[in-house]
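To the wet lab folks,

You asked to see what we're planning to order before we commit. Fair enough. Below is the target structure as tokens, and below that is the sequence we designed to fit it. If anything looks off to you, flag it before the synthesis order goes out.
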């Protein structure tokens, strides 16, 4: 990667999967096939009345330790861990909501080819890639399609999910919330107030999952290096500091992390497939995954043509891998893979180098631009913080 280090998830003892193993064990769940995080011994967490996991979408370790240096979150920073592969919201959030690595939960990117429904789907909104109503309106049961056991159903305590109002009842969140009580919010103030209200009701053990999405949204639109992102982060950081003080004496342990970090990509670093017709004609399906990690479904008779073109024209911008090798080399996790994992990652995968991205467009799809991107294997995208505050 032109001297840029490739960072892979540390599934053995240093990733968000191991973080979830610690939290599940601390709340009486069945042991995870993944080891607990050494920095968060479940025996230490077990005694807290309120165990809160706060996920800040898009919060990378490098961002916290530079832009956030000296702030409240930085003050409580305990360690650096990795997210999962790919370093993207669909895949990492599913890990937070199931406790499983992508190797087992098999949700591998924003756009996925589900053979079961015969098309490419945008997973979080649960809509066809080209747009339109959610698949549930056509009779597709998201819980049955995903086939996951929510982490909330693996714990022996009361559980809660605090989510933005606009997505609290989305097909994806309903399918993954299990018996958790879902609470919604519309503002930063209400976000922290809702967590505090849940934590202060009764002295019975609880687990609270709380998700904040705004940093990610701003970074995509304006860039993670933008003043707008920095201003929002400063506001969030100050609110977190006030929240910890508010929670004093509540017997709470608050864990904060991110689902991925970010890089910023310039318009001239976007490779659009319609400018590479010789490559596009080798594909049987639109590109799947994300702009930084693209899964390619290649016609069997054109695999040689595909490989030759990528090596000749795109080798400065992307690493070409056979998708099966990603499973073999434990990019997605450890142990036996989900039975559908291999069919959900295509024949080849393009891991984008540097700050490059790749994109195609399908008929009916709304065109949009993103400055901030994530998904690949740079340290900025892969490392997330482990913040631990006791109150």
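Sequence we intend to order:
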């Amino acid at each position: 990667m032109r001297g840029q280090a490739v960072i892979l998830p540390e599934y053995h003892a240093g990733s968000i999967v191991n973080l979830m193993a610690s939290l599940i064990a601390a709340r009486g769940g069945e042991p995870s096939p993944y080891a607990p995080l050494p920095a968060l011994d479940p025996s230490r967490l077990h005694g807290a009345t309120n165990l809160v996991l706060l996920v800040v979408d898009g919060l990378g370790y490098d961002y916290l330790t530079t832009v956030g240096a000296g702030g409240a979150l930085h003050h409580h920073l305990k360690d650096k861990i990795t997210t999962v592969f790919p370093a993207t919201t669909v895949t990492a959030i599913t890990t937070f909501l199931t406790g499983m690595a992508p190797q087992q939960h098999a949700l591998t990117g924003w756009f996925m080819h589900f053979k079961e429904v015969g098309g490419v789907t945008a997973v979080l909104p649960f809509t066809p890639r080209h747009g339109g109503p959610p698949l549930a309106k056509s009779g597709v049961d998201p819980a049955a399609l995903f086939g996951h056991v929510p982490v909330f159903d693996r714990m022996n305590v009361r559980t809660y999910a605090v989510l933005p109002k606009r997505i609290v009842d989305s097909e994806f969140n309903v399918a993954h919330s299990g018996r958790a009580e879902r609470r919604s919010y519309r503002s930063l103030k209400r976000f922290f107030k809702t967590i505090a209200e849940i934590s202060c009701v009764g002295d019975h053990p609880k687990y609270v999952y709380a998700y904040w999405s705004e940093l990610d949204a701003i970074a995509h639109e304006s860039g993670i290096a933008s003043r707008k992102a920095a201003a929002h982060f400063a506001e969030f950081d100050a609110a977190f500091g006030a929240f910890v003080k508010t929670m004093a004496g509540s017997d709470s342990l608050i864990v904060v992390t991110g689902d991925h970090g970010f890089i910023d990509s310039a318009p001239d670093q976007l490779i659009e497939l319609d400018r590479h017709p010789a490559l596009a004609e080798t594909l049987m399906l639109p590109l799947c995954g994300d702009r930084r990690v693209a899964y390619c479904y290649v016609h069997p008779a054109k695999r040689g043509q595909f490989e030759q073109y990528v090596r000749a024209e795109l080798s400065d911008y992307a690493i070409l891998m056979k998708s099966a090798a990603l499973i073999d080399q434990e990019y997605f996790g450890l142990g036996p893979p989900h039975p559908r994992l291999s069919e959900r990652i295509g024949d080849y995968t393009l891991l984008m180098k540097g700050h490059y991205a790749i994109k195609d467009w399908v008929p009916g799809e709304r065109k949009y631009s993103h400055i901030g991107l994530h998904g690949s294997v740079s340290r900025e995208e892969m490392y997330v913080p482990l913040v631990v505050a006791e109150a």
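Structural context that might help your review: The chain has two domains: 16-264+377-390, 267-371. The domain at 267-371 is CATH 3.30.1360.180 (Gyrase A; domain 2).

Thanks,
Computational group
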